[in-house]
Amino acid sequence: QVQLVESGGGLVQAGGSLRLSCEASGSISGANVIGWSRQAPGKQREVVVTATSAGDTHYTDSAKGRFTFSRDNAKNTMYLQMNSLKPEDTAVYYCRVRIFRGLQWYDYWGQGTQVTVSS
Description:
The protein is an all-beta fold. Helix content is 0%, strand content 56%. It is built from no helices and 11 strands. Strands 2, 4, 5, 6, 9, 10 and 11 form a 7-stranded mixed beta sheet that branches. A 4-stranded antiparallel beta sheet has the order 1-3-8-7, with no helix packed on it. The chain starts with a strand and ends with a strand. The mean pLDDT is 95.
């Protein structure tokens, strides 16, 4: 069982920056996939960035060039640095950890942190 706690959300003006953090209760170094997703009001949850155990990192098109994913395995923490924020980035941001073990996927989500970008 992995518990995830996000922090760092808030209200920021367009063009500003925020850094989200997600601390895991257990090690994330062995996870198969980790990353961030977001859900705007009235919309489906969408993937923002995923990082695989193979070392690949994939960003959604709207995040490329503005958002940067990083991780600190020693602290069991992942981060999302968001720059040049736009009002359309307003959403609840969730971190996610996926582990494949025993022929089964285990999916863990944080409780979410609100990001609001004002125009």
